[in-house]
Amino acid sequence: MSEITPEIVAEHGLSPEEYERVLHAIGRAPNLTELGIFSVMWSEHCSYKSSRIHLKKLPTTGPQVICGPGENAGVVDIGDGQAAIFKMESHNHPSYIEPYQGAATGVGGILRDVFTMGARPIANLNALRFGRPDHPKMRHLISGVVRGIGGYGNCVGVPTVGGEVNFHTAYDGNILVNAMTVGIAETDKIFYSAASGPGNSIVYVGSKTGRDGIHGATMASADFSEDSEEKRPTVQVGDPFTEKLLIEACLELMASDAIVAIQDMGAAGLTSSSVEMASKGGVGIELDMNKVPCREDGMTPYEMMLSESQERMLMVLKPGREDFAEAIFRKWELDFAVIGTVTETGHMVLKWNGETVADIPLAPLADDAPLYDRPHVSREEYKAWAKVKPLTDMPESADIGADLLKLMASPDIASRRWIWEQYDNKVGGDTIQPPGGDAAVVRIHGTHKALAMSTDCTPRYCYADPYEGGKQAVAECYRNLTAVGATPLAITNCLNFANPQRPEIMAQIVGCLDGMADACRALDFPIVSGNVSLYNESKATGGGSAILPTPAIGGIGLLKDWSKAVGIGFKAEGETIWLLGGHGSTLGQSIWLREVCGHEAGSPPSVDLEQERAAGNLVRQLVLEGIATAVHDISDGGLIVAIAEMGLAGGMGAQLDPLNTVQAFGEDQGRYLITTAPGTNVPSAIAIGKTGGTQVFGVSLADLRSAHEGFFPELMG
Predict the structure, then answer these.
(1) Domain assignment present for 290
(2) Residue 80: inside a domain, yes or no?
(3) DSSP three-state, residue 349
(4) What is the pLDDT of residues 410-466, one digit of tens each?
């Protein structure tokens, strides 16, 4: 057995102080396998050691919440004995190194988090951030990521119904790929991960274990350096056809009473799944490593425990149910092996070739994980560091119509059709509103109900003012769900930040979480699951340094009658267009300022949470009563871009009252555009025009469509 040197400890991502904790936890020097187990369980990716203190601020409960953070996914009640189960995860570093497999296995992993709990997945979404479109690597990265998401989701038979894409130079050397899955389960058939029952069998199912993905969790907990290409072996390889079989086999077994606990093998593979199951149940675990199904010769216990091979699950079965379960998995042509037992020792013991190769007390492995309250600068110090220029006077547009045309073709506003046409968004036959609107709407099969779902974040706001940016990410998600007529239920998140050991970056984390927490409380919109991805920073040639702070929010809402849902497209000529929430008053951090004037300046628009809630209640009432014929929230690009999007979706223009620059392009929050039949009155809203014609602000729909649809096909050749 190799001697554990300081160099080996450092290679495993543990600091000297953390290694001292390991020595204290087990009372002796670990062997290499034990060190590997500690390194992944105490990695940032698995232990949240820099963010746990601040995550406690987030509201996670409510009358609708069945299960909040801590399990594989969050669970909320949607009535009639049904629950929605959902979560969002990051696969950022793997997707930069190997975009197709990185994105594909991100989708596979989040699907497993959801069906592990007994849910049948009904929808996938994603939130993607890329660098400059003209960066030499970006076309390759965009193409690979989009093909990976589509390739996996389409093959596994779950529709990809929504998402978002941003471009910014800050992501040149570290793109973000966040994947979300939503599933439906019966409330009396939800499965959890706490192991129990000493003597019960521990069973491994799914694919065989290979050497792919070893140190994936550790790699995801460090900055990128120039050698990212050498990290290719740390990227997992996915097989969506096996995942489809695994979904069906697990759901079939879940219909019985055989399962005590179940956990997918995600980050840190067999290590995290076995440690988490035993720790949550307060029991011990003994594994026979000779029984682990392997697809490569000569694999060591170290490699088996740290592999992140895909499409694998671990479960604890009730006594005597092994043969019954095995028959199901063999029928679905999947591996099935009893690899261990639950014990009363409180230790993780690994046997190999008849010898004990690891013996770790589980309580310290879970409870003594490092927890850091990292220093962060004050809000004022952060503003000075961020160097956001003040917006001293409001610039004027020389030609609002020409600027609109430019914005419609810009990277952050252009149509994403080129992307979502590569995804099957109709498989399953329950997609009511596909990509392209404010929120996707998916019917709950065999019922009148539907779930609305959306992913949202405005990273440039989060950089300029982390607190307001955190609030805005939650509020925009709330608005997008409301705009289709859904009652917002709960959110998941994927918190993407750079190096938390830099006080300025830690200030972004603290500020965004404070803003998110306040918004969730004010809007009764609790956070039930999530993921933290730190060290999204690159030293790679040509890359930026830190990403923009990107706390991506994924939300779901409930429609009790899916037929009442509205979209963004104008429905008929001569209808009244109403503005709810008032005219724009600031151009700070607006897309117009960046794309037309060439600079990012000013404070982002602030979010009035009381106004947000009141406007949301009114919009849902107008949709429910059939008064609103179309609804669209106002976000990137301001009012004029939102009108153009409604016109393109409905195939007709609009005649608008005169607008000045800030009214046209300001991105003030809490605002909606609503259309109604002539003669209808919308309380507290302003009538700003009528639908009809073939132009928006003097620009033809044909020119707007050409600009809007042209960006991605032109970029991708």
Answers:
(1) yes
(2) yes
(3) strand
(4) 999 999 999 999 999 999 999 999 999 999 999 999 999 999 999 999 999 999 999
